[in-house]
Amino acid sequence: MGNSQSSSTPTDPRFVSASRSFAQKELDELRSLFASLASQSQSNGKYISPSVFQAYFGLHGPLGERMFDLVTRKRKDHQLTFEDLVIAKGTYEKGTKDEIEEFVYQLLDVSGDGLLGRTDLESSLAVIFEIIFKPSDCGPKLGSLQDAVGIFLNAAKFSEHGEGNGEATMSFADFRSWCTIVPSVRKFLGSLLMPPDPGRPGSQVPHLLQLESIDSNLMLLRKEYAWHIGGALPQQELEEWKLLYHSSCHGLSFNTFLGNLSNHEGPTVLIIKDKDGCIYGGYASQPWERHGDFYGDMKSFLFKLYPEASLFRPTGANHNTQWCAVNFSSESIPNGVGFGGRVHHFGLFLSASFDQGHTFSCTTFGSPCLSKTNRIHPEVIECWGVVTKGADQDKHDVVKATVLERFKEDRNMLKMVGLANSSE
User: Which segments constitute the TLDc domain (predicted)?
Assistant: First the structure.
């Protein structure tokens, strides 16, 4: 199949060890792939050229060049052998968590100097966004490339400092911490030797269906934000998200918010922009329904979108994930919606007036204060419904506030406060 004459001998212990990670069928498929790419490289079946490798795996720029360098074990001969391919995939896809993350850490060092600096990370992120976001994509626009890269860079720490005035660098511990709060980046970088089809992990961006009456420039949820949030979600929740509520259209109204969400049974994404310009929110895995205490499950999480992208999943410290209190008269049960923490000290909380709230660091999600100050004053609030793949819904029906629909909303609101059946 063209590999018998490759520069590495089949007795290379790294190749022998890596081969054991694959079933025979997988090895046969790798042989077929190698033969196909080697023939395109016009190498008499001996090796794969850099251009053919990058074109097949959908890579380019400094990230593509660095990947080829790592896969060929830094030989600089521009020849990727069958043994190289097996060893790289054996480490990168079949290795331990530490081995895979070490590979990705080296991959981001696009300069190849052994130091992962801000410049390396910036170059890598620019290529990632160029690969994922296509100019022809419809829906809310991608912000400028510089802004998109910036929000992820702002979440990174560079704690190591070289001698003199050298650039601060990211340690391996810094890198692992960053991967935890930007799972979309980690998911994408961990799948680059998989076929570049639309379902490749880390490449999928939800299709965003918005109300035609709302100017897209008023939307908070941009493509890079949706991709960031989606990094913590399963593939079936990344197909389509539908706008259910936007304060510029529906007003800052808790009742309208709950009414608009009453017909959506799936998860929702709540996003807030406050008067300090910070954008953040939470993913609610359960519907927003009246409760007198915390409820929900461990799938919910909090996130920051601007000025930095970061995501905070449950730590297991407690189960105080969601809060939705409606028309309670006791001060011990604050009316509004929230995530995490404890009563009156939530990770994120919006009061029922929808004109104020708060955010504190909380152990539920291991999250910090999401804004500049603990007290927040919302400027824009929007909520998206996650359309789970296979759900029996009309995906292209954007609900309009007709008389009948408003009646239905009112009935649902009465039901929440226990009055719907009082006269029946």
Answer: 219-387
Burial of 233 (0-12, 13-18, 19+ CB in 10 A): buried
pTM of the model: 0.86
Q: Please give the span between the terminal C-alpha atoms of the chain, in angstroms, as a whole number.
A: 78
Contact by Cβ (8 Å): 108, 179: no
Determine the Cα angle at 393 with ends 232 and 302, to 5°: 25
The full length of the chain comes to: 424
In which domain, by residue range, is 375 found? 207-416
Domain boundary among 134, 158, 189: 189
Looking at 189, 224, 241, the residue that finishes a domain is 189
> Residue 406 pLDDT > 50, yes or no?
no
Can you give the pLDDT at residue 217?
Answer: 84
Query: Per residue in 46-73, pLDDT tens?
Result: 999 999 999 999 999 999 999 999 999 9
Q: What's residue 164's pLDDT?
A: 60
Residue 204, burial from CB neighbour count under 10 angstroms (0-12, 13-18, 19+): buried
Q: How are strands ordered across the β-sheet holding 357-358?
A: 322-325, 336-342, 345-351, 357-358, 375-376
| Tokens describing residue 85 | 């391919």
Residue 365's CB: how many other CB atoms inside 10 A? Answer: 25
pLDDT for 142: 64
* Burial class of 302 by CB neighbour count within 10 A (0 to 12, 13 to 18, 19+): buried
**Is the same domain home to 24 and 108?**
yes
Does 90 fall in a domain?
A: yes
Contact predicate 85/94, CB 8 Å:
no
Q: Are 282 and 303 in contact (CB under 8 A)?
A: yes
Residue 225 and residue 150 share a domain: no
SS (H, E, C) 269-318: EEEEEECCCCEEEEEECCCCCCCCCCECCCCCEEEEEECCCEEECCCCCC
User: Is residue 325 domain-shared with residue 234, that is, in the same domain?
Assistant: yes
**Domain identity same for 220 and 185:** no
Across residues 94-103, what is the average pLDDT? 94
How many CA atoms does the CB half-sphere of 370 hold within 13 Å?
39
- CA distance linking residue 239 with residue 285, whole number of Å: 16
Give how many domains the chain has, as a whole number.
Answer: 2
